Amino acid sequence: MLKNMIEAKRSHVPEPGSLRQAIDRYQTFNRSERKSPNTILFYKERLGKLIKTFGPEFQMADFDEPILREHLVGYSTKKHDGTPLRPGTLNAHARALRAFFRWCYLNDITASHLLALLRPPRPPIEIVDVLEDDEMTKLMAAARRRKRDHAIITLMLDTGVRAAELCGITIGNVDMVDNTIKVMGKGSKERMIPFGRTTRRALLAYATEERPDAGYEEAVFLSSYGARLRPDTLRQIMVRLRNLSGIERLHAHLMRHTFATKFLLNGGDALMLKHILGHSTLAMTDRYVHFASAQGVKASREFSPVDRHVDGRSAARNLLRPDRKRSAWPTSNWQS
């Protein structure tokens, strides 16, 4: 029976149609599968590149693997604001096209899976950017001008929630007894995240002293007009705090990077971090483990047995010969 199904699939004639029609059908499928708005937007942007290259009326029957690979090569040479596209951007574009053409094959729009053999370029594991301790102090001080902003920054640094997750937190999601919040992550997966005493105090201060009475609105974080906080409003808050704190690279995801790295440096477990961040695999958490390990290596220099042995002998000699002058050493060419 399986053999007959495979043979039937090989011999079928794909339905004619344009690229625009195929993309519209694919997005209808994604919405019917209750994919998140961010996922819908992701495919809209990625597949929009296909329309820009080939035009909306390009016939699906005219696509083949060489044409699509030529498109990917051309896309990889493009620039954004004068700089080459990041490896992660190229990877995302290739993955989106492969998923789309797989769906096209399964739904009889193309005769074969045109990108079945495509291996998206693997982006390198980059060292994540995190806030230093003094920058965290500056940011917290700047955020204290408004209790809402202080609660937002404290919660993001203490839990690593994404911007969209933060905006979606409702009053019923917050447990002030167990100090936990329930968030809806990617793939409509709920998870519980703990927070500390400082965050609890910040949330209580905002809820009791500054949060507007919004009536039916259940969202924890509201705008000045009592409406649910939106991601674009959160970006405006980050711009304001960037100017107040002097941290030019400040953005919402920087809090997530900072939380994850500090969590590991403070002795947290990688498996627990995977759950807190809402990652589907440990591979996604490895970038933080990699960076935290590098930070730990730097900190371990003070435990060098040889340095301590030599320093101890030097100290003993200096005690015995206090008048002896130390020779100058050209340290300018050495990195500390």
Please give the radius of gyration in angstroms: 27 Å
| Main sheet summary | 3 strands, antiparallel
Quickly count the helices. 14
Bin the strand percentage.
under 5%
Strand and helix order: HHHHEEHHHHEEEHHHHHH
Number of strands: 5
Mean pLDDT: 83
**What sort of overall outline do the alpha carbons produce when their principal axes are compared?**
globular
State the distance separating the first and last CA atoms.
70 Å
Instruction: List segments where confidence is low: pLDDT < 50 over at least 5 consecutive residues.
Output: 8-13, 324-336
Subunit arrangement of the protein = single chain
Strand order of the largest sheet: 3-4-5
Secondary-structure-based class equals mainly alpha
Helical residue percent band: 40-55%
Describe this structure in words.
With 336 residues, the protein is mainly α. Helix content is 54%, strand content 5%. The protein has a 3-stranded antiparallel sheet, with no helix packed on it. A two-stranded antiparallel sheet has the order 1-2. Helix 6 (133-143) runs antiparallel to helix 7 (147-159) and helix 6 (133-143) packs across helix 10. It is globular.
Lay out the secondary structure.
Layout (H helix, E strand, L loop, with lengths): L1 H10 L7 H14 L4 H18 L10 H12 L2 E2 L2 E2 L2 H20 L26 H11 L3 H13 L3 H5 L6 E2 L4 E5 L5 E5 L2 H13 L21 H15 L6 H14 L4 H8 L8 H14 L5 H16 L16
Antiparallel strand pairs: 1-2, 3-4, 4-5
Helix pairs in contact: 2-3, 3-5, 6-7, 6-10, 7-9, 7-11, 11-13
